[in-house]
Amino acid sequence: MLDFDLAEIYGTQTRMLKQAVKRNKAKFPKHFLFVLTRREWKQLITICDNLPAKVKFSPALPYAFTEHGVMMVANILKSKRAARMSIHIIEVFIKMREMLITHKDILLHLEKMEAKLTSHDRDLGVIFQHLRQLLVPPPKSRPRIGFRKNDE
Predict the structure, then answer these.
(1) What angle do CA 69, 71, 76 make, to 5 degrees?
(2) pLDDT of 84-124, one tens digit each?
(3) Is 73 in contact with 6 (CB distance < 8 Å)?
(4) Alpha helices, H only, the chain
(5) Residue 77's closest CA among 69, 64, 144?
(6) Does the model's pTM come out above 0.70?
């Protein structure tokens, strides 16, 4: 989640949220928080047209929080709203993870089915090839060349 969205959810200003994070840097390792690069921020602005102008044209790069970072921000803000909202956000992260796992299982099943179908297609191709050979009549027998007995 980006800092300005998180600040709105927690009922604080973005600059206050960033100040709290800076005062508690030790509580935010790299897997809790990272700062978007200029390039990433420009790409995000291009993709998300509905960002407010105040956010789009801010000179500061936004912080991006992982689910653990979201929980840590709630701990350092120490407001009841932040605690309540962080629980809701964590629940959303959990549901998203469950959905990804479910879709991953479906994808694995589809891949297995595709492999079986590909195998069956090859096998059916071989069967049809042999059936075509059986449908072609054998060439007519040619008269024998050479010595024949009278009763032949």
Answers:
(1) 90
(2) 887 888 888 888 888 888 787 787 888 888 888 787 778 88
(3) yes
(4) 3-10, 14-23, 38-47, 53-56, 67-77, 80-135
(5) 69
(6) no
